[in-house]
Amino acid sequence: MKRATSAVVSGLLAVMLTGCSGGDELTIATYEPTCEGGFSAELAGTLTRTESGCLTITSSESSVVPVFPNDAILVDGESILYKDTTYSLGDPISLGGGMVTNQKLPAECVGESDVFIVSANP
C-alpha cells in the first residue's frame, strides 16, 4: 500500500509541476552579436504576444518579431528587462535596428510576418 501511495503522490507532483513550468513565459527571439553597430531604423509599438507565446511589437500597421541581442534582454514570465527598464505586455516600446528577411527564429515565432533585428549598440 505504501508503494501505491508513493507512486500516486509522485505522479500528481509531476503533473502539477509540468502544468506550472513555462506556461506564461514569453518566447524571445535573440541573436549573438558579432560586433557593435547596427541599423538605424526605429520600431515603435506595443509589446504583444502571439498565441504560440512569441513576443511581438504591434502597431497600427503590423506585428513584428523583434530579435534582441542575447546578452541585452532578460525574460521574467510575461515581462522583459531591456536596457535597465522592465516592459510588460501592453507597454509601449521603441527600438533601434532594422528589418531583415533571413533570420533564424524560435519555433514559436516562425511564420510571423516581419522580423526586426534590434541593434547591439548600447
Key features of this structure:
single chain; 3-stranded antiparallel sheet; disordered N terminus; 122 residues; 1 helix; 5-stranded mixed beta barrel; alpha+beta
What does this structure look like?
- The protein is 16% helix and 40% strand.
- By secondary structure, the chain is α+β, with helices and mostly antiparallel strands.
- The strands form two sheets. A five-stranded mixed β-barrel has the order 2-3-4-9-8.
- A hairpin with a 2-residue loop joins strand 6 (79-82) and strand 7 (85-88).
Distance between the termini: 62 Å
Helix content class: 10-25%
Shape estimate: globular
Largest sheet: 5 strands, mixed, barrel
Estimate the strand proportion: 35-45%
What count of helical segments does DSSP give? 1
Strand order of the largest sheet: 2-3-4-9-8
Summarize the structure.
This protein has one helix spanning 2-20; strands at residues 29-31, 41-49, 55-58, 63-69, 73-76, 79-82, 85-88, 92-100, 114-118. The protein has 122 residues and is an alpha+beta fold.
